[in-house]
């Protein structure tokens, strides 16, 4: 057997930890021709689909878990380094960390995900900072009456429904969205209508074909498209609290510009290797594959990257290719309702009933199952 290859994974989010779990299930330190190092900026794994709920009620202990059990059963197979990766030297094959440390790799996997706006802009920092971030959001929401969300994509719609569901008529929740219906055209009109109906039933005020600008003085200026040939109207809305739910950018700041497209996504081939460096893979939210970035894509991309890494480890050419699946989504519309579409071959998108989705998701949007990937 040739010398063990050092596989370094930057980012212990949903994609990073599931990749590691797959290696841990398949190999022991004696059968694996590799050693794995996870570099992660936070003390804990955070299952982000539960972020929104945690801004309303404290469920931190359900979905925020330390990495201490990740290699518990296979301690010689890998290790976790807590630190922020700030650079990659391709020639020396080294990842540098903010604290000055350097980590050598043979194969590198980038899995640093996305940076969101509040209330999903969690610090890449220690346990108490992350818990403090959510506590602050809960306090802000609790003390605000007029809550205004700019952006009616999946996270905006879910947050609006979650707040409205929890506080009922005690708060005025307003959602401003630029399109004719919530979400984007990627999803079926039936689903988008359904999301709108749920929002309205929860007494969320929804402004469609509108754009909001936060004046940072307790007001938002909304410009709304007119009907037909009517001129756009401008209105100033009161807002004790404003969330921007539309801006998301890949968390790729520390990586060379030559790797990225104009929006900051890391450019990959269909093998999920970098366009000009076969020893580096990019998986999850940060790569430039044309698809809606969701955790659900894991089931399709993980087998590809797993097999291709094994090929490289065994000095073979990676041959598995990734083809994005048709778009499916589940939206949690408050604690007791959900909607979503599943793309079925030949049939197309099928809307799933709320009772089925809520029972499949369990009490905490599948978090109990998700933290299993870090051994909890
Ligand atoms: C509110 C919300 C709800 C969602 N709901 C759903 C849903 O219902 N279903 C679904 O399928 N998807 C959902 N998603 C999307 C899903 O969470 C993402 O697609 C998924 O988390 C992407 O996984 P990832 O591993 O690429 O990135 P992430 O899970 O974001 O993980 C990236 C990790 O990298 C670390 N990191 C970043 N930069 C560095 C660095 N420089 N050095 C070291 N570590 C670093 C971060 O700390 C983080 O742990 C939701 C997202 C949000 C925000």
TrEMBL record:
Residues 85-294 form the FAD/NAD(P)-binding domain. It comes from the Eukaryota. Pfam families: Pyr_redox_2. Keywords: FAD, Flavoprotein, Oxidoreductase. One of its GO terms (cellular component) is cytoplasm. One of its GO terms (molecular function) is flavin adenine dinucleotide binding. Belongs to the FAD-dependent oxidoreductase family. PANTHER family: APOPTOSIS-INDUCING FACTOR 1, FERROPTOSIS SUPPRESSOR PROTEIN 1. This is FAD/NAD(P)-binding domain-containing protein. It comes from Lipomyces starkeyi NRRL Y-11557. The lineage of its organism: Eukaryota, Fungi, Dikarya, Ascomycota, Saccharomycotina.
């Amino acid at each position: 057997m040739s010398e063990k290859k050092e596989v370094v994974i930057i980012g212990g989010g949903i994609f990073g930890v599931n990749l590691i779990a797959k290696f841990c299930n398949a190999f022991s330190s004696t059968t694996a021709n590799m050693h794995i190092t996870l570099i992660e900026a936070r003390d804990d794994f955070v299952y982000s689909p539960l972020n929104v709920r945690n801004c309303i009620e404290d469920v931190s202990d359900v979905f925020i878990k330390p990495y201490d059990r990740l290699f518990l059963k296979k301690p010689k197979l890998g290790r976790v380094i807590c630190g922020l990766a700030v650079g990659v030297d391709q020639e020396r094959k080294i990842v540098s960390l903010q604290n000055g440390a350097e980590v050598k790799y043979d194969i590198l996997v980038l899995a640093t995900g996305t940076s969101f706006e509040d209330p999903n802009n969690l610090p890449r920092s220690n346990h108490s900072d992350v818990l403090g971030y959510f506590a602050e959001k809960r306090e802000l929401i609790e003390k605000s009456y007029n809550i205004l969300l700019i952006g009616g994509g999946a996270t905006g719609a879910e947050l609006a429904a979650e707040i409205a569901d929890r506080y009922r008529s005690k708060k005025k929740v307003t959602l401003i969205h630029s399109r004719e219906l919530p979400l984007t055209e990627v999803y079926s009109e039936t689903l988008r209508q359904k999301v709108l109906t749920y929002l309205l039933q929860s007494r969320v005020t929804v402004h469609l074909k509108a754009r909001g600008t936060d004046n940072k003085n307790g007001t938002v200026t909304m410009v709304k498209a007119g009907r037909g040939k009517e001129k756009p109207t401008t209105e100033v809305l009161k807002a004790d609290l404003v969330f921007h739910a539309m801006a998301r950018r890949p968390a790729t700041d520390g990586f060379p510009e030559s790797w990225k497209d104009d929006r900051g996504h890391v450019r990959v081939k269909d093998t999920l290797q970098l366009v000009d460096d076969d020893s580096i893979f990019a998986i999850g939210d940060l790569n430039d594959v044309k698809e809606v970035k969701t955790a659900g894509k894991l089931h399709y991309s993980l087998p590809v990257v797993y097999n291709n890494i094994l090929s490289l480890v065994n000095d073979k050419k990676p041959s598995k290719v990734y083809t994005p699946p048709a778009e499916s989504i589940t939206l949690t519309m408050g604690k007791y309702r959900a909607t979503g579409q599943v793309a079925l071959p030949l049939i197309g998108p099928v809307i799933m009933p709320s009772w089925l989705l809520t029972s499949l998701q369990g009490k905490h949007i599948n978090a109990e199952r998700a933290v299993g990937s870090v051994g909890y």
